[in-house]
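Recall that a protein's primary structure is simply its ordered list of amino acids. Everything else, from secondary elements to tertiary packing, is in principle encoded there. The following example makes that idea concrete.
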Amino acid sequence: MAFSNKNFPTLKNDRLIRAALGKEVDKVPVWVMRQAGRYLPEFQAVRAQHDFFTVCQTPELACEVTLQPLRRYEHLDASIIFSDILVIPQALGMTVEMHPGLGPVFPKPLQDPSELDELKENGAISRLDYVGKAITLTRHRLEGKVPLIGFTGAPFTLMGYMVEGGGSKTMSKTKEWLEKYPKDVHRLLSLLTKVIIDYLVMQVESGAQLLQVFESSADHLTREQFIEVSSPYLKDIRNGVQKKLEEKKLEQVPMTIFAKGGGHSLDVQAKLGYETIGLDWTVDPIEARKIVGTNITLQGNLDPQDLYKTPEEIRRLTIDMVKKFGKHRYIANLGHGITPQTPLESMTAFTEAVHEAI
């Protein structure tokens, strides 16, 4: 049995895992992207004393902020380890700083393909061992209350940050790379894919019970580009994780792909082997179900901005959403991360309404 060497507490609430595997559930499971985050005053208190990446890199702190939303919201059916997708570029030797009001900044982004040779692939996973330690600690501290999700950024999304030097509304430098240096783009995406596979397997070895891959920049890709620079690598990640878990005699864990803005490619995503497809708020649940069929779980997809409405309105919108998705093969979530100014009672209204809806 996987994890036996860790002696983890028995899982008491397995709704999330059951929904991901297509099994019957008593209630629709619910969790929220960025549920451990800036909308919580207790998270702000930790951040007032510690830099963002210090929290990520200190297992005790990462564990504490992971658990914060579960103490406040009894209806949450999952925890997600507090970390960041950009820990991978850091582990490859790039500097990433979190600037207030700006978000992540790379003081020295990749200027041209000659710099790919400077990326330090060897030892990258050992430089990420703090994530594994945080996962193991959190699994114990959760006491089996809910499952723990591990995650990673997808190769194209990570490449975008590494080339742009931070978040970008246009991705103009990345698009220039796609045009000018197609071979080097695939070389970089392949390198990232290898590291991501090992990183996710390490998370499972450490205690992660479900894995989510964030292709957060899919909205910058056409369907054709998605098929060229995103989906082949997403498929390699799914197959690679499965194969390595088999080799290590570890239990397989369900995996979710969330391609924000990837509504144009749901049929492609349905063929990648992931148990769950996350939908952003622009996708109609009924249409999505028609496209992906009945053997894949859907996750999502309330607009995060809806959480600024009254609790009554949130409840109505949430119940309406859950009914569209139905109870089978469905995990309720937002269509992207919860935003920093969200009122605390909105999360209560949202999570309660999910459990009451069907």
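Residues 232 and 272 are 8 Å apart (CA to CA). The radius of gyration is 19 Å.
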